[in-house]
Design a protein that fits this description.
The chain has 3 domains: about 100 residues, Rossmann fold; about 70 residues, ATP-grasp fold, A domain (Dna Ligase, domain 1), CATH 3.30.1490; about 240 residues, ATP-grasp fold, B domain (D-amino Acid Aminotransferase, Chain A, domain 1). The longest helix is centred in the middle third of the chain and has 19 residues. The protein is an alpha+beta fold. Helix 2 links the parallel strand 2 and strand 3. The protein has an 8-stranded antiparallel β-sheet, sandwiched between helices. Bound molecules: ligand MV4. Ligand MV4 binds next to strand 6, strand 8, strand 12 and strand 13. The site of ligand MV4 has 19 residues, from strand 6, strand 8, strand 12 and strand 13.
Length: about 475
């Protein structure tokens, strides 16, 4: 096991990792920016090092500052959490060069999976189903047009360096295609310094279902079931659940097997997630592989009873996975709401500032992962997540009811929050019936806009629901 782990992150995930390290008996080092002096991760860790000014690129995103902090504190491993440097292959490489273990897969793996076309090539070779029509990187608009005509519209144009929806364009006809090609390519060149584009059939009304898995250094890969992440707005997830209400046991088994096959074929190490789209006919297609522990990992922990962060640290340290596939079974249902300091009535605009009052819900089957407290000031420099509220119950219906009551118990004053909006989602008939896809939230907001422009709208609402 590691002698000392530096946590290259902040907020709730830094606390989550510190707790796992405590249980493993490993001392921890926190790093913090000048904006985070009062943050809990600084107090929770055994040691803390200030790494720079508030701006991320001068602190949490600067590999040299992080590695220097690890060197001066004699840490032998770095846990990146999610976001920041978690999927930065150069950072993972620098860690290796400095004899520091990066808690994640090898740099080459991060790089391969970060290149979405290369990831697709690899998965296709391994026998994992991918979206029809994909035929490698496009040489130019002429090839794009020819391929689109061959596979039939609608098609999706994607930047290979993209992901999370950036550099992506939906095209319904030939007229759409060439303009979109140039626009998406320029966007990709500007954002990622990489204009490589590919094309595939567009899946309309899909579910976003992702399979959690873990690989160790002995060639074992185990999956931990799936999460349904279809409830999102502009690629920001608002609510996640496990298991997915869409899947049958048979489909779950086949998707799990496909994910394991893909991960085994690349000798995957550590925690990873294979994202799939599931279409209306219940076909599933590989989309992307995330090479980190994800924000929504707790719902998987709740239904499997397995501490994924502890297991992730163990396997990267060279220990054998503590469970085999036969040991993993899903029990009950778990839902997570990401409570953000955002105003749903103002286009989800972030509202950082001081939390003047803070009371967390509790009780049987209720878990709150947060680094916030009454009096804490949410800085404007980072993401606006205040807390993850996670519930677990025997059935989906009971989990929904428990989440409704937990949201009602949650008191956060001083900043806007998404709580009321999430409360509304849980009351929607189609959500309760499990009838939703990735456009669910968008449709809810469109319906709001219609009703607020038709009737005597509150002035607040009409100005807020723009675009
Ligand atoms: C798609 C798609 C439909 N067809 N690809 C968005 C983020 C990136 N991971 C992939 N994404 C999509 N790719 C094809 N061929 C629809 C989406 C998509 C989406 C996917 C997951 C969750 C939410 C989404 C919202 C809009 C579009």
């Amino acid at each position: 096991m590691f002698k000392k782990i530096l946590i290259a992150n902040r907020g709730e995930i830094a606390l989550r990792i510190i707790r796992a390290c405590r249980e493993l008996g490993v001392p921890t080092v926190a790093v913090y920016s000048e904006a985070d002096r009062e943050s809990l991760h600084v107090r929770f860790a055994d040691e803390a090092v200030c790494i720079g000014p508030p701006q991320s690129n001068l602190s949490y995103l600067d590999p040299r500052r992080i590695i220097s902090a690890a060197e001066v504190t004699n840490a032998d491993a770095i846990h990146p959490g999610y976001g920041f440097l978690a999927e930065n292959a150069e950072f993972a490489e620098m860690c290796a060069d400095c004899d520091m273990t990066f808690i994640g897969p090898a740099p080459a793996m991060i790089r391969q999976m970060g290149d979405k076309a290369e990831a697709k090539d690899r998965m296709r070779k391994a026998g994992v189903p991918i979206v029809p029509g994909y035929d490698g990187i496009l040489s130019g608009p002429d090839e794009a047009l020819a391929l689109a005509k061959k596979i039939g519209f609608p098609v999706m144009l994607k930047a290979s360096a993209g992901g999370g929806g950036r550099g992506m364009r939906l095209c319904f006809s030939e007229d759409d295609l060439v303009g979109n090609y140039h626009a998406a390519k320029s966007e990709a060149e500007a954002c990622f310094n990489n204009g490589a584009m590919y094309l595939e059939k567009a899946i309309i009304g899909p579910h976003h279902v992702e399979v959690q898995l873990m690989g160790d250094k002995f060639g074992n890969v185990v999956h931990f079931g799936e999460r349904d992440c279809s409830i999102q707005r502009r690629h920001q997830k608002l609510l996640e659940e496990s298991p997915s209400p869409l899947l049958t046991d048979d489909l779950r088994g086949r998707m799990g097997q496909a994910a394991v096959l893909g991960a085994q074929s690349v000798n995957y190490l550590g925690a990873g997630t294979v994202e799939f789209l599931v279409d209306q006919e219940m076909n599933f297609y590989f989309m992307e592989m995330n090479t980190r522990i994800q924000v929504e990992h707790p719902v998987t922990e709740e239904v499997t009873g397995i501490d994924l962060v502890k297991e992730q640290i163990r396997v990267v340290a060279g220990e054998k996975m503590s469970v085999t596939q036969a040991d993993v079974s899903l029990s009950g249902h778990s839902i997570e709401c990401r409570i953000n300091a955002e105003d749903p009535n103002k286009d989800f605009r972030p509202g950082p500032g001081k939390i003047t009052s803070f009371h967390v819900p509790g009780g049987f089957g209720v878990r709150v992962d947060t680094a916030a407290y009454a009096g804490y000031v949410i800085p404007p420099y980072y993401d606006s997540m205040i807390a993850k509220l996670i519930v677990r119950a025997d059935t989906r219906k009971e989990a929904i009811v428990k989440m409704i009551h937990a949201l009602d118990e949650f008191v956060i004053e001083g900043v806007p929050t998404t709580i009321d909006f999430q409360r509304r989602i849980l009351g929607e008939k189609d959500f309760v019936a499990g009838k939703f896809d990735t456009s669910f939230v968008e449709r809810m907001l469109e319906a709001d806009e219609k009703s607020s422009t038709k009737s005597v709208a509150s002035p607040d609402k009409t100005t807020a629901t723009k675009s």
